[in-house]
Amino acid sequence: MDIVFINQLKLNTIIGIHGWEREKEQRIMLDIEIGCSIKLAANSDNIDDCIDYFSVCERMKTLAKTHQNQLVESFVEEVSRIILQEFMAPWVRVKLNKPDAVNEANGVGVVIERTS
Fold it and tell me: Which residues are within 8 A (CB) of 49 and not within 5 positions of it... i.e. 6 or more apart?
């Protein structure tokens, strides 16, 4: 299996359980690894034959602006669902980092792996 990856996609979104977290956008970063085969695209040199990482990034930007999740766990589950269903990937690993959530840490968050 090959992997298409996106590292440290920076997004601003409303997320969190505390009142102050619901008042203004916070920065999150996504690392996404998408399992797929790149053989067809490598041979055809056609964007239609691969997972378009630009389109994935645009979809994640839209999600960050429109979601209603409070928990990072819910947000990453939605990210993985989108990758598996909308981009037809058989496997995905998603890491969500909230770099500003805890002053003493470089970031906190979750990592999940899902299959279709």
Answer: 40, 41
Q: What single-letter amino acid sits at 44?
A: S
Domain ranges of the chain: 2-115
Q: Long-range pairs for 65-68 at CB < 8 Å and ≥24 separation?
A: 65/13, 67/13, 67/15
By annotation, the residues acting in catalysis are 98
**Domain at 2-115: CATH code:** 3.30.1130.10
Task: Give how far the C-alpha of residue 64 lies from the chain's centroid of Cα atoms, to the nearest Å.
Answer: 10
Whether pTM exceeds 0.90:
yes
Check whether 16 has a pLDDT greater than 90.
Answer: no
* Residues 23-32: tens digit of each pLDDT: 889 999 999 9
Nearest to 50 by CA among 82, 8, 6, 87: 87
Mean pLDDT of the region 87-103: 95
DSSP-H helix ranges across 3-95: 39-44, 53-66, 72-86
